[in-house]
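Entry for adenosine-5'-diphosphate complex. Fields follow.
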Amino acid sequence: MKLAVSGKGGVGKTTLAASLARALVRRGYTTLAIDADPAPNLGTALGLASDVADGIVPIGEDEELVAAKTSTGYAGVYNLSFPIDDLVRDRAVPTPAGAGLVVMGTVRTAGAGCTCPAAAVVRALLRRLVVGDQQAVVLDLEAGLEHLGRGTAAGVDLLLVLVDGSAASCTVAGRIAALAQELGIPRIALVGSRLDQDGGCDAATACAERFGLSLLASFPDDPAVARAGREGRPVPTEGPTAERVEVLLDKIVRKVAA
Ligand SMILES: Nc1ncnc2c1ncn2[C@@H]1O[C@H](COP(=O)(O)OP(=O)(O)O)[C@@H](O)[C@H]1O
Ligand SMILES: [Mg+2]
């Protein structure tokens, strides 16, 4: 099962991606968490100490690795049919949450008809990673639409788009959903996140209706989650948010199987 989490910046993507990864591990899935945000922070959400998380060299920024994968010996000509399984085997960092973590890093694709080898390696990893029955990939996408635009979300079974009740998050969600449909992602659903008591849920519901998407779950603003975020600690393993993550994961498993 390959899941991707997207939405406007600050809406709670990393928090949800880490929570889902941990819940999947607890259910016996071998889980790979992929941080595709150029400003990565999924590692600390999965329980890594910040110095360990900061010490990870992102795949897209590892020039030696990228060259070893894509070099043909001719300038401007890249080999794009390299194996990727070793990338996961050698580069996934074990985390206290039990998921392996791969950090993609910033991949510059500026320039017309870009064939940046780093982007090719990152794309290949996201697209070609084969996932078995008891394996799961959780992809924490960046705030904007970059990765989706470049097609890196292709091969995803379910895209979760987070909305926090604000008009801006709904607008971004609509754009993401349209792009994802274009890319052929088979299942797209909204998830309400950080919703305030005062109309947050209604706004998330209205957003789902506006774009004809289902609202798979709603997470209220949870002070314990906010505190953990402020202090750079992993998301709480117990409490109302953790319980809702379990319910959401039940729905995800059913939806992906259907
Ligand atoms: N349900 C929630 N309740 C309260 N705070 C939350 C919740 N979800 C996320 N947060 C907090 O909001 C901030 C942004 O969350 P984060 O997951 O980093 O968002 P994103 O990855 O979308 O930028 C973090 O400080 C996080 O702790
Ligand atoms: Mg994030």
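NOTE: The chain has eleven helices and eight strands.
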